[in-house]
Structure formats: structure tokens, C-alpha cells
Write a structure and sequence with these properties.
The protein is of the alpha/beta class. It is built from 6 helices and 5 strands. The protein has a single domain, classed as Rossmann fold (3-Layer(aba) Sandwich). The radius of gyration is 15 Å and the shape is globular.
């Protein structure tokens, strides 16, 4: 069976973020939404982030989920290089519990918007990504309708 092209791109600044992002990947798997994962820091590998973000749409990516901690510039940098919607996941940090990450993500300059979920809100990022996909894809829309119905019945 052929693998479907990814619709969601997940990027994180460090491999240390992988554990916190597993609920995002698990939720996308549960929904049957193909995704790709990239690890690249906005500060340590800016050219790699630029190339990945700029080519995302051409690769079939329709929504990007960006996870980062501390300065947490990754989502904003990605949003600067793509017209795809970007959902930021602030990572919990040891210094300020993730508040530093959250504030970095929600203070974007005019013209470079990102959506932002709760600190370590990886699962909600996946759900929001599929809701965004559902605005133009009936199967994704119905996936969310069914998910919310099951949640209400639990």
C-alpha cells in the first residue's frame, strides 16, 4: 500500500522535545493523518529551518506544528517562510515552567501570525491541525465531528 503524502509538518527545536510531542503524533496517527517530523533549531540551524518551511507547501504540507522551548522562536521563524498555518506548542522548561516559551510564541509581530496551544499541548495541536484541514477536506471535517461526538459520549 502506498504511503500518503504528509499533510502536517511537525518541527521541533531539539530531540529533547520529542517526548512531549508524542501525543501530537499519536493523535494524528489515530485520525489517520499523514505527517512528517523534522528536528531543527531556529537558532542553530536557521538555513535548514528556512529550506524546510519554504518548501513545505510544495511537499503537500497544509498545516505546520512547531514545538520549542525557552526563546521559542521556531514557530515564528517558520511562519515567516511559509503561507501554511503554523500552530505553536510551547515546551515546558525548567527555568520558568514554559511561561517563557508561551510568551515568546504569542507575541508575534503584525503580519506573521501563529496559533498557540497550551504549554505541552501537543495533542490539542494535532486536533487543531485536523480542524484546519477540515475547512477544505470533508474527511478531515468528519473525523473531528466523530471525535467530538465520541468525547461528548464518554
Amino acid at each position: 500500500m502506498a504511503q500518503k503524502a504528509p499533510l502536517v509538518g511537525i518541527i521541533m527545536g531539539s530531540t529533547s522535545d520529542m517526548g512531549a510531542m508524542e501525543p501530537c503524533m499519536a493523535q494524528l496517527d489515530e485520525f489517520g493523518i499523514p505527517y512528517e517530523v523534522k528536528v531543527a533549531s531556529a537558532h542553530r540551524k536557521p538555513a535548514e529551518v528556512h529550506d524546510w518551511a519554504q518548501s513545505a507547501h510544495d511537499r503537500g504540507i497544509r498545516v505546520i506544528i512547531a514545538a520549542a522551548g525557552k526563546a521559542a522562536h521556531l514557530g515564528g521563524v517558520v511562519a515567516a517562510y511559509t503561507a501554511c498555518p503554523v500552530i505553536c506548542v510551547p515546551m515546558k522548561t525548567s527555568d520558568l515552567g514554559g511561561l517563557d516559551s508561551l510568551l515568546s510564541m504569542v507575541q508575534m509581530p503584525s503580519g506573521v501570525p501563529v496559533a498557540c496551544v497550551a504549554i505541552n499541548g501537543a495533542k490539542n495541536a494535532a486536533i487543531l491541525a485536523v480542524q484546519m484541514l477540515g475547512t477544505g477536506d470533508a474527511a478531515c471535517y468528519n473525523t473531528i465531528v466523530d471525535f467530538k461526538k465520541a468525547m461528548a459520549e464518554a
